[in-house]
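ARCHIVE RECORD
Type: protein–small molecule complex
Small molecule: 2-deoxy-2-fluoro-alpha-D-galactopyranose
Source of inputs: curated submission
Record status: active
Notes field left blank by submitter.
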Amino acid sequence: MELKTKVSEAFASHFGGEGSLYASAGRINLIGEHTDYNGGFVFPGAIDKAIMADIRPNGTDKVNLYSIDLDESASFGLNEADAPSQQWARYVFGVCRETIKRGGSVKGFDAVFAGNVPLGAGLSSSAALESCFAFALNDLFNGNTIDKFELAKIGQSTEHNYCGVNCGIMDQFASVFGKKDCLIRLDCRSLEFEYFPFKLDGYRLVLVDSVVKHELVDSPYNKRRQSCENVARRLDIDTLRDADMEMLDAVKADISAEDYMRAKFVIEEKERVLDVCEALNRGDIETVGKLMYATHHGLSKDYEVSCEELDYLNDIAKECGVTGSRIMGGGFGGCTINLVADGIYDNFIATVTEKFNARYGHQPKIYDVVISDGARRVE
Ligand code: GAF
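STRUCTURE (tokenized, with ligand):
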């Protein structure tokens, strides 16, 4: 059933009548991993996997939520300080609180939502949920006076303050600003950005999900960020955006081997984003692919956020002649993003499915993705 019909019907049976429909999207990132919280560049886009919510003000100061996918309800008062116990409801609670904190207005509402963004795959279903509600609250209660940069920050602060993930801005930015057929080259320091038309004739973007759990809360993700901040402090700069290899090598003896490797990856990765954009501008897809493999290598060996299953997926992609492949998102599980020429697509899917299944006893999940619009009202 179409997401829109599913959400509208569930709203009618749960709360009666109808509300207003809003959607937002998960994201991919072509290149630029773990650079966002280092003030570097990223290159994400929203995808055709969405979260949709049907929402209606209820004239009280209470928020009543129903998650169709989990078949669970949650409620909280807008004046209550305590977040709901269910993690999924904390995202909405956080968005309400962060909107209010910024001077925005939020009144009570009833909402039903569902989505088809794969969970735990590194496609940022949480950012999709946050930006869907941030967008909706702005439209319903604030006459769209909160700008889109703030909407992205509302989602990011929700992660920081209510979910324990000290993330950068990339995921929420892509979800809020996503535009059909365009990737976004975002400078995470200045938040200047540029839409890059991205429709590669003869290639597809394919995600291969290892189905290994991806858990960022209390995770080594925050530790990676800490390492980068340690090095920046040692270099007396705000973020690693301002570092280069010469500066890093000059302090090598004073920092831990681990912090050195993390910073080295970030310094190399921020350059790769710019190189990929240049290569795309001249239509040099082979170079784009090589840089994606280089990112995978760095994420696996220097940043150490890969795992055996993802390295294996990367190896299979290479063997099959996939143009570019790498682990995508925060890491520690999730999926690889693959730039696959049409001519080898069928063979790649068959081979990766068979080989992965033979080694790990379960098939990876395959998603072809199309770059799509981000947060929006659905008519
Ligand atoms: C996660 C985070 F939420 C992002 O901010 C980003 O750091 C990403 O990991 C790694 O590039 O998705």
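CURATOR ANNOTATION: The mean pLDDT is 96.
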